[in-house]
Amino acid sequence: MISFVRFITVLFAVVAVNPIASLETGDFYRPSADEMSGIAGTNATYRRSPCPALNALANHGYLPRGGINVTEDVLHDVLMSVYSLDETSTQILLALVPSMFSLDYLGTHNLVEHDASLVHTDAYFGEDPASVNETMVDDLLGRSIDGKTVGVTEVAAARANRMANCIANNPECTFSASTLKIAYIEASIFILGFGGNVNESVGVDVARAFMSEERIPEEYVVSSTVISFATNPTTHSRIHFDSLTPTIDMVSFANCITAATFAVSAFITSPVEGLDVNLLPEGTYFKPSGRLVSGVVGNTAAFHRSPCPAVNALANHGYLPRNGQNITKAVLGPAVMAVYNLDEASTATLLALVPDTFSLDYLATHNVIEHDASLIHDDEYFGGDPAKVDNKLASDLLERGEASGKLGVTELAAARKARLADSIATNPNVTFGTTQQTLAYTEASILLLGFGAKTNESVSLDVARSFLVDEKIPNGWARASSAITVAEVRATVANIIAATTA
User: Fold this and answer.
1) How many whole angstroms separate alpha carbon 502 and alpha carbon 496?
2) ∠ CA 136-141-146 to the nearest 5 degrees?
3) Its pTM surpasses 0.70
4) Is the pLDDT of residue 187 over 60?
5) Of 246, 175, 220, residue with least CA distance to 57
6) Which neighbouring-strand residues pair with 85?
7) Which residues contact 311 (CB under 8 A, 6 or more apart)?
8) With CB atoms 3.0 to 4.6 Å apart as the test, which of 194, 306, 336, 359 could cross-link to 363 if both were Cys?
9) Are 435 and 367 in contact (CB under 8 A)?
């Protein structure tokens, strides 16, 4: 009897210390504000994000309750089972996060967290990014026309209001370019996901449970059909056009990672309701993804891209046609000079490689500009899309600069040597003659001089990663203060070759 009493005493003591110890998957436990944080890099016991959908999954134990070390395999399964996302939608989501991450990672400002959220205070005001602003929740749900549900009209009005408040009250009101691909969709997932994909509306009580309490309510019914990238193209477009007056950047970006599932379709589908990416202001970043983009020569995808990250970045920011098609030398030349500060002679050398009018996939023609032993693209022999970045190759390249925080002549020379050796060992059709060598070493030189802005023949890892992997001109990046000349490019090429053969 004494042993039993002691056992019960110990059991209750354990539960008191660790309240989640006895919980099963599906049981709800939301840690208190003192126990949790969404600040990136926090050491709080419980990590949370600005995304109520993901926080709800952690609060119910579908994700690790601590919000720590969430793997893509686990996230994949619960997004499909709990919110009924289809496989394509889920894969698009997984591409936005590391293979393992903690929820506070999403609280990094202008990564997923952003200004003008529907339920979170702007970062400028210093609040924890995972803290829900109840006044904003009340404002959103109080807009219900019938008092029972919230739909397109109400959410569009709330979006317009939040954007206006951000501009009026936040002197640093801004939107990270990296969040554009999940723009305009916060309301769509709010309505389609939380609403069970029924009549483009969500019940007020269900919405409050998700948004305010980050709880999956008992009355929530998962969509009877999967929520698909392909089949739900219009809700977010309607919300956008209902709320947008008069310019395209007067709209809130998504703060929930699940929103990204539909991001690209907002720009492509329905000529009446779809959003034309060419309406985006020049300089604004939008990178197409998935089946909508290809670098295969002669492809029919909506967006054409190349094996050249510098040129792709120009298209992703609208300095070239965003669809990557029908580019003229008269457009390419000034863009290269203005953005990367190449001088006229260097620019003329590049223009000599392309026809008067071309699409970006032309650059993927094997052994014309695309070549074997690329630093970040797999060889043509293996049959991949020539515009697709090989993440393993990119990681290998960037890892060479981890000690110094940058890539320089030594690192690129070692990478060039290793890539050629790998191609020779694995590709029976490898070709790396004079033409390919000239292209490869010139590319490496441009990487250091152009992306690195002529800073001691080096480029920081953050800048290199942004250009090479995201094909994005990084925020705050400044081009070289003086024009990059042919002589400078050749000198850096010579230095890399010398280091390669040393």
Assistant:
1) 10
2) 155
3) no
4) yes
5) 220
6) 227
7) 320, 332, 360, 363
8) 306
9) yes
